[in-house]
Amino acid sequence: MTPAAAGANQTGLIVTGRRKWVLLGSLFTNFFILLALYCGVISVLLPNHVAALDPANKANNLAIVMTTALLFTIFAQPIAGALSDRCRSGWGRRSPWIVGGALIGGLAIYGISLMTTLAGIAVFWLMAAVSLNCMNGPLATVVADRFLPENRGIASGFVGAGSTAGGTVGIIVAGYLAYNLQLGYLVFGLAIAACCIAFVLINRESSSKNVVIEPFAWGAFFKSFWVSPRKHPDFAWAFFGRFAMFLGYQGVVTYQLYILQDYIGLSVDESNYAIGTISVITLVTLLFSGLISGVLSDKFQRRKIFVFMSSIIMAGGLLIPLLMPTLVGMYLYAAVLGLGYGAYTSIDMALMTQVLPGGGKQAGKDMGILTIATVLPQSFSPILSALLLSQFHNDYSSLFIAAIIFVFASSFFILPIKSVR
Predict the structure, then answer these.
(1) Which residue ranges run through the membrane (predicted)?
(2) What angle do CA 308, 310, 311 make, to 5 degrees?
């Protein structure tokens, strides 16, 4: 048992029996709603909102909105995670951050709907992104806090399945609500606030008021965010593997609506409908691969081979629209990408919890650092995609080629990891 797991067990955080299954279902639901919000807003609501303001410059303007939050969101999760490690309250360490981030983030999401300028949209998206990242970090740390290492495969599977299924359903729902953007933003804002409040009420965290912590020092606090790749190479390999994968994946998914319009040749209405169909296809395949991979990973106590193979499958899926630039090609791409992405996300978190320095003593902070590898590509990929489209005369095939390169490369970053099989 890791030091973190041993400490968690002593304070009654480790869940077993019925409590374990309740927590698994709650994690599935929360990550389902969170990713539904992210994907629905980023892939459908914001692109439609931004395009309505200035159709001719929609790609560049979307990149501006997405990257405005970059400098803030990349640090939000590790800082929130580190502060949650030190949080002392009757509701525990993570719960106050989960509820507070969700409430502020939900209000900010609705605030976007009231904006009629690009600057206004960017400001409220910044508020939402920072708040939701402050919630997401402590929420993800629950896997390291409350599950023994040998059970983290299935826990990661539930989180991964919830995340990928939520992202898919979020795009479907947002596509149907695209005719009324204000309603769309309201639905997602209310959903994230409600599910996070329910999460902390159903899965009560033990009080942390009496937990002994080291005296706070600003120098030591900021120094702790540097994790030496030389001392902790497995942590570094995991970070760069996740970074490369999400950089490739997000570069295509963020512009999926525009791909359907400008690469496949669909109208605005047709593309909003098609993106929903694509999401349904992805949902079916990712749910199957996500849950099955989590169970098999725990059964064989193997993580690396599942992450490696899922990255290869994703790269194969991204190749299909290059060979078949048709709606059928996009449907096949969705099916194969779902298989790979579902398996990847179901095992990736389990692997991450097992490469944390010090056995996870500062799990909130270290998991937050690893989430930079997810957040940074989400913010940076629109810039890269806009540059590629500008360089290659709005040819969206360049996005697929870049995505294949990054996703394929990500699979090989996992192989040098030695502490996890």
Answers:
(1) 21-46, 62-83, 95-112, 118-142, 154-177, 183-202, 235-253, 273-293, 305-324, 330-347, 368-390, 396-415
(2) 70
- Top-confidence residue, 199 or 372: 199
- Integer Cα distance of 119 and 121 in angstroms: 5
Distance CA 288, CA 372 (A): 28
pLDDT of residue 335: 93
> How confident is the model over 153-182, as a mean pLDDT?
82
Q: Side chain identity at 311, as an amino acid letter?
A: S
Between CA 344 and CA 350 the distance in angstroms is: 10
Q: How far out from the chain centre does Cα 338 lie?
A: 15
Two structure tokens written together for 58:
């929609």
CB 117 within 8 A of CB 336: no
For the domain spanning 19-205+231-413, the CATH number is 1.20.1250.20
In the chain, % of residues over pLDDT 70: 91
The tokens of 372 are what? 């930079």
Which residues are within 8 A (CB) of 344 and not within 5 positions of it... i.e. 6 or more apart?
Answer: 160, 245, 307, 310, 311, 314
Place of tokens 């949080």: 87
Could you give the CA distance from residue 111 to residue 27 in angstroms, rounded to a whole number?
Answer: 27
Q: Categorize the per-residue pLDDT at 30 as very low, low, confident or very high, splitting at 50, 70 and 90.
A: very high
pLDDT digits (tens, 9 = 90+) for 348-393: 777 777 777 766 566 667 777 777 777 778 767 777 888 888 888 8
Nearest CA to 337 among 265, 378, 281?
Answer: 281
Burial 168-207 (b: 16+ CB within 10 A, else e): bbbbbbbbebbeebeebbbbbbebbbebbeebbeebebee
Chain centre distance of CA 317 = 20
Q: Which of 400, 401, 407 is nearest to 377 (CA)?
A: 407
Question: For residues 381 and 296, is the Cβ–Cβ distance under 8 A?
Answer: no
Nearest to 121 by CA among 30, 39, 182, 166: 182
pLDDT at residue 9, rounded to an integer: 45
pTM: 0.70
φ, ψ at 301 (rounded to 5°): 50, 45
Most confident listed range (54-63, 102-111, 268-277): 102-111
The Cα 209–Cα 50 span in angstroms is 46
